[in-house]
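Bit of a strange request maybe. I'm writing a small parser for structure token strings and I need a real example to test against, not something I typed by hand. Could someone generate the tokens for this chain?
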Amino acid sequence: MVHLWRTTLEVLDSDGIPVQQRAFLSLAKLVGLIDDTVLIAVPNDFTKEIIETRLRDRVAATLGQQLGRRQAKVKAQHG
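Reply from user aminoacidic:
Good idea to test on real output. This should exercise your parser:
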């Protein structure tokens, strides 16, 4: 899981994700994969909101590529 998340962040960096958005992703940790759904742990509700509203599509597409799928579903969870 750590390698998958690290690779996803590297791809997003190379695609030119804004530094502010990258900062929020650096606070997150990939903690699970169930079918096509990736569970990401975040430290607080604000980070969860940013990931789910501003970054979900890019993260889902990049994770989907890494997993060999069209797109993954992303669920951020605080706790």
